Structures are given as structure tokens and as C-alpha cells.
Amino acid sequence: MSRTTLIHAGWIIPMSDEPVVLRNQVLVLKDHQIDAIVTPEQAQDMIADEVLQLPNHVLMPGLVNLHGHSAMTLLRGFADDLDLMDWLNNHIWPAEGKHVSDEFVYDGSVLAMAEMLLGGTTTINDMYFYHDAVARAGLKTGMRTMVGCSILEFPTNYAQNADEYISKSLQDAQAYQNEELINFVWAPHAPYTVSDETFKRVVALAEEHDWLIHCHIHETAFEVEDSVKQHGKRPLQRLDELGVLSPRLIAAHMVHTNEEEMALVAKRGISIAHNPASNMKLASGFAPIQAMLDAGVNVGLGTDGAASNNKLDMFADMRLGALIAKGSTRKPTDVKAYDMLKMATINGAKALHLDDKVGTLQAGKQADMIAVDLSALATQPVFDPISHLVYAADRSQVSHVWINGEHLVAEGELTRLNQADLLANAQHWQQKIAAG
Ligand SMILES: CSC[C@H]1O[C@@H](n2cnc3c(O)ncnc32)[C@H](O)[C@@H]1O
Ligand SMILES: [Zn+2]
């Protein structure tokens, strides 16, 4: 039987191309889908199973976290104040070698997804090991999950070599073929950990299985310089020659990108996942986001993992991303509030080829949406809700979250998950990891 909910919202921001703010309108939610946006007068004649009054709230599409490693919540605060290669080689990879297992990934991913849901994230583009555990966490929490199947040339607890990463990924994906909210993506880790031969295989497999590709690219100056030493070319050029650059690719970071490369990225139709907090914390540098947008590149927003951010807070990263874009170029008009809001919603959906389903509030789309309560003192008065969402609001102001029409956060509380269980589990892992 079909179920209708009428949501009366103070402001509705559908995230169309131009900044549109609808005042005091009603969104009609029918089962999994957005049915219409109507006036309160039109809504009066409608029969509904539920009516929600959200007079001080913005209703908008859910946030799309375009780059993350969910399970790394269990390593949050484990190694701070280091640059990327020191952090990975001397701290994170040894710790992952000791602790990462199916259980670690499931528990860490559920914790991450709970944190993200409470903060208004409705899609995560993940990249980690033990893909079945990530997919199970997505099903448990109700999060729309892109399960990134990592591939490296060296052994980890999950697999011994590229062949094994690939065969396990294909096997893991089989069980989830009919799950609406779970999709699988190839995730070759980075140009410095994946060989030419494996990249070529990934391109062929992506075409064969119609999967996207998600890869860390040009994250640090060291990565680019080292590639020039090892291969005689910058990573992007190497990947272009290997056929990796296409609209299937989501390039995480692209901090060190020159003008020629931006033009190539635009020409190849690649999307970029910008991770401002992780780039600042690992001291990787400032990605030239406005220049990329000007070049016509689709740029989305990501948190990266909780071990390098250390929050999974898209509101914090929208604010940080918009501020550092201006500070780094000394141009106040760079990455305006609405540009950033697009990055965190529709641009992310486009990168994941999900924009026919989510990313905007439009009739016929799946209902991935959030309500943000602006009645807090910190977001008063309201001249422009778009400004507040990017520059003033906090994730704690997210009051309601729906994914595919399911109400997963209501009045700021998780509806499916028990917070006390999540806390107990996090403490269990803290003790285990601290014991070495
Ligand atoms: C194969 S994906 C998981 C792999 O990536 C590591 N990782 C986490 N954050 C970053 C980053 O910003 N750059 C490069 N690699 C990263 C993570 O620890 C896993 O080993
Ligand atoms: Zn990453």
C-alpha cells in the first residue's frame, strides 16, 4: 500500500542550476519518491498518512560525501599532525595490518554511517577493504553506499595481489546486484601503488561491468615529483595514456593540478572529489577549486577518512572548502555559497552517475533529503538560508534525514540504530587498538 507524507517546510532548496529558495511550501513524499512540491493551499486537499510541520527548517537534498574510507573511524585520532606518506607508511598502514578484518570494517563503517547520517550525509562514495562488510554496513544503516573495491599491488589483510583484490571484488559484488542502495565501484588506490598493467585491467573491467573508478590522484607534491622520477611523466598524463581518464573516473584530491591538466580533466569528463579538511590536516596543499569549476570540471565534496579529517562532517567541510578557496586565491567571489552547496549535493550525484535518482528535490526522484533547523541562535536572523547552510550552520542542526523515502533520522535521533550499542562498540575497538 502506498504511503504519503506531507512535509511543510519554511524553506525548500531544490538545488536547481540557479539558486532557488521556495518559501513556505509543501513537499509531497510518496513511498520512496518525491511526488511534487505544492503550495499549502494545494496541500490542504490532499489525503496523507503523515503531516510534518517544519516551519524553521530548510528542506534540501541529502549530502553526497564523494570520498571516504568509512571504516577508518576506528583509527580516528590514532596518528595526527603528519604528512600523507609519513602518516600512511609509518602509522596507518602498520595499524591496518594489525587490525583490519571483516569485523573491523563492518563496525567502523556502521559507526561512520551513523555519524554521517546524523550530519545529513545520505550517500557515501567509500573506498576500503572487506567490501562485503562495507555493503552490509550500508544495508544495516540504510545509507546509499558506493562500495569502492580497493586494488593495490602489495598484500594487505584482505588480499595478496591485484589479481586477488579483483577476484574478491567481483565475488563480493554478486550478492548485492539487486540492492537499490548498494553499488560497487573499482578503487585502484593511487598511481603510486598500482601498476600500468593493473590500471589497464581496471579500465577494461569497468567497461565490462559498467562500474565507476575511484582513485586518489595528485594528492601531494611528492606524488607528482616521484612519478616524474619513476615514469618520466606526471601521474595524470600516465593515467591518460593508460585510458583511465573518462567520465567513469572520480579523482580524489587533484590538489597539484596545473592549467593544462585542468583542461584535460574537463575534456575527459572526469569528476573531482575535493577534500579540504584532509588536504589541510595532511598539509597536502590547496586544490584550485574555482579554476577547476571555471574550466568546466564537475567538482564534488568529500571528507576523506576519519583518520585524516578527523570528522565526517560535510557541513564543516562545506564551510572550510568555501573559506580556503577564497583565502588561497585572495578572491572573495571564489566558490560562492551556492557553488559549495552544489558541490555537496548535485555535483556529487553527477560524479556517481546517480543524478537521475538523487541530488535535487524534483518530482520523480528518489527521496534522499534532509531538514536543517535554522532556529538556533547561531543561525539567526535568516536573510538567506543558502548562506547559513554553508557559513553558519552546524551538523547538529540536521533534524531529519530520509534516504529512498525512509525516515532514518527524526528529530535529530537515529531511527534504526541504537546509539548506546555504537558507543560500546567504539570503546571496544579503542581498547583493542590501544593494546597494540
Ligand atoms: C585502498 S583504499 C584504502 C587505503 O587508502 C588509505 N588512505 C586513506 N586516506 C588516504 C589518503 O588521503 N591518501 C591515500 N591513501 C589513503 C587507507 O589507509 C587504506 O590503506
Ligand atoms: Zn582518501
UniProtKB/TrEMBL annotation:
Positions that bind substrate: 96, 189, 219, 304
Names of required cofactors: Zn(2+)
Enzyme Commission code: 3.5.4.28, 3.5.4.31
Cofactor info, note text: Binds 1 zinc ion per subunit.
InterPro entries for the chain: Amidohydro-rel (IPR006680), Deaminase_MtaD/DadD (IPR023512), Metal-dep_hydrolase_composite (IPR011059), Metal_Hydrolase (IPR032466), MTA/SAH_deaminase (IPR050287)
Keywords: Hydrolase, Metal-binding, Zinc
Catalytic activity: S-adenosyl-L-homocysteine + H2O + H(+) = S-inosyl-L-homocysteine + NH4(+); S-methyl-5'-thioadenosine + H2O + H(+) = S-methyl-5'-thioinosine + NH4(+)
Signal sequence, renumbered to the chain: none
Binding site for Zn(2+): 67, 69, 216, 304
UniProt family annotation: Belongs to the metallo-dependent hydrolases superfamily. ATZ/TRZ family.
Function, as annotated: Catalyzes the deamination of 5-methylthioadenosine and S-adenosyl-L-homocysteine into 5-methylthioinosine and S-inosyl-L-homocysteine, respectively. Is also able to deaminate adenosine.
Protein name: 5-methylthioadenosine/S-adenosylhomocysteine deaminase
